[in-house]
Amino acid sequence: MKNIFVLLLSFTSVICAAQSRSVIELEKGWKFHKGDAATAEAIGFDDSGWQTVTVPHDWAIYGPFDKEIDKQTVAITQNGEKIPTEKTGRTGALPFTGTGWYRNTFDIKDFAADKKAILLFEGAMSEPQVYLNGAKIGEWAYGYAYFYFDISDKLLEGQNTLAVQLSNEEFSSRWYPGAGLYRPVSIVIKNAESIDQWGTTITTPVATAEVAQVTIKTKFTGENLRLMTTLYDAEGNKIAQNATTQSILNQFEQHIKVEKPHLWSPENPYLYTAVSRLYAGDELKDEVTTTFGIRSIHYSAENGFQLNGKTRKFKGVCLHHDLGPIGTAVNKAALRRQMQILKDLGCDAIRSAHNMPSFEQLELADEMGFMFLAESFDEWKKPKVENGYNRFFDDYAKRDVENLVRATRNHPAIVMWSAGNEVPDQYGSAGVKRARWLQELFHKEDPTRPVTVGMDQVKATMESGFGAILDVPGLNYRVHLYEEAYEKFPQGFILGSETASTVSSRGIYKFPVVKASMKEYPDFQSSSYDLEYCSWSNLPEDDFILQDDKPWVIGEFVWTGFDYLGEPTPYDTSWPSRSSYFGMVDLAGIPKDRYYLYRSRWNTQDETLHILPHWNWEGREGQKTPVFAYTSYDRAELFVNGKSQGIQIKNDSTPQTRYRLMWNDVIYEPGTLKVVALDENNKPVAEEEVKTAGKPHALKLEADRTNLKADGKDLAFVTVSVVDKNGIPCPTATNQLNFNVTGAGSFRAACNGDATSLELFHKPTMQLFSGKLVVLVQSSEKQGTIKLQVSGRGLKAESIKLNTSL
Ligand code: GAL
Fold first, then answer.
1. Which fold, 698-805?
2. Residues flanking ligand 1, CB < 6 Å
3. What is the DSSP track for 740-785?
4. Main-chain phi, psi angles of 321, to 5 degrees
5. Atom nearest to 454 CA in ligand 1
6. Do you know which Pfam families this protein is assigned to (predicted)?
7. pLDDT digit string (tens) for 382-425?
8. Atom 6 of ligand 1: nearest residue by CA position
9. CATH code for the part of the protein at 4-9+201-296
10. Per residue in 438-458, pLDDT tens?
């Protein structure tokens, strides 16, 4: 986990004499240039004409969208394609390819010769070449890896210049990877005698309601030192302490007993902190704070997956790392909002598909309560895309795995590692050896968590032994092979490491309402009746049945929680499709209908009663217009303008009738659609209505938060919708809206969730999609009030006030 250090500064200059350790976050003062720049690494290089940016930064998200960018004429063999076709928008059609340079000049004060300095990158997209004061200090390859360099003998007291060159090849990704320094960069300054980078490992080999054993291993540099470790509970009370001078090979090992611990779980994400103080005599040499949780995990044929001794199934989603309209530049407020939406869904687990998660996301998973499947690679040695990770596997796989585990292993949220996703190495004996080598590498770094690989070539992995050697056999789709895999594999349980890949567009409904694979429409949208999927995938219910009926299935990770940039299946070859249709939630963060289908079974705290479609079908009068309800109730009665359409009860006749209530023969007439949920005695227990809206009349603004931090980074997400003169939402409105932000903040971006929109996210104007869009407002560093005003032709302008405080 990210250690919280004694001092955390985001200034570009810092004095570190008095403190044992300090961290300089290199956020501000960066200069950026897209393109090659000869001698840009040199100290005196004139970068005054370059763009001033803050890091994290994604250079490509500002567009423009262009179908020629990274156009891939390929057959996607893992999708069963045999003939190459022209894929536009596969990687988002945003300008991430090519070279970019970043430079930062900063002051370091009181950096004495006996100090140590570490330069840490939490992700750099990609192939970074790093220069300090004109000299190359190192390089890396994988854009998702965390890495650091010891710059103790290169950092100068006074002015320093850091220059980073990044380059992204064409044909290097299957989705939008982003570009640039999209995750934090920092410098850690500490004493020569100090705790090593990622040197603290905390495990809880005993974790029961009565007692826990907290084992802390601390790697350090120096001699004759003493380590004092103090544990604090979530309220900051000191609960235990241990001091030791005994070390072996520069590692201390302490075992601390905690009575009646609060066990960490998604339902009770209780966190402790450990403060590690390193002394030479009485002198404090280093101090590191680590957040941790006390919990146990266990996987077995008898009990499946157990957290704290209780069997449970993962109610998980796969997420890509982009944050929609702000791209890949990591932002904690955006991540928190995403995870709040997932909490309300009842989701309890996240898979970082298909790469290392950000530290921020893991911190939030610990705090908010999500179990985490931390993945590493989408490719090993055999390519999926020509310039993918296959180019780096031999040189970097070991280092990338080590850094992943060392940097993140203290997060209680992480309950499993993934060594890869659908790697073509599933075929052939070399791949089996690679799987084993990687798994052992994970085990060496972390003996406490199992390793999985998401497998799509299930038959091949049954034959080769690939599936049998994994700690956790993960199946991607292939619901028809679950039984056979369970029989053939020795583990005694199966994980749905990737499921569903059902596609839909928010608020779009197509007729006739039929189940279909790879269905395409002239408007490049998919139907929100949730009956459309891919040739390799399935509908949600096919997974629900396995999850509910097979005790040996230990859960699922649905593809995907949110839409993401790139991979616009089934419209891979249809310009201007440029983002995915897989999400339960759209790219703007607005739930689609499908969200409520999952919510109706995952969220066991709150009731779900959701009806679809909308009821604005001018021209469909007299025609069959099916109505579905996604609900936690078993039965309901539907009314159209007060006329009963009958009672539907969930039943086993088809996968869909088991989980959805469906009235397939409803004849459309404008007015009110009302669903009344019933108990087993047919007594009404809840109801929900949808009304036909008139013309767009007014705007409605709803912010996810109205009190922001005045830190220049915090974001409010304001959902904008259009209503008619009676306040009824207009579900088909497409008005062009304009945004104006004044006061202590600025307009950051807008997004409407339309996968075919080429409007730029950072321009203060956008068209509504299915009556809605979201505006992102960012705080400044000044305390005060922010006003967002939204206007549109023929509509009454509306505004909302947000407060910011320090
Ligand atoms: C899977 C793959 C994902 C995504 C998904 C789309 O096979 O692992 O990355 O491509 O298909 O359905």
1. Immunoglobulin-like (2.60.40)
2. 78, 353-354, 421-422, 456, 476, 498, 501, 534, 537, 559, 567, 569
3. EEEESEEEEEEE---TT--S-TTSSEEE-BTTEEEEEEEE-SS-EE
4. -85, -15
5. 8
6. DUF4982, Glyco_hydro2_C5, Glyco_hydro_2, Glyco_hydro_2_C, Glyco_hydro_2_N
7. 999 999 999 999 999 999 999 999 999 999 999 999 999 999 99
8. 501
9. 2.60.40.10
10. 999 999 999 999 999 999 999
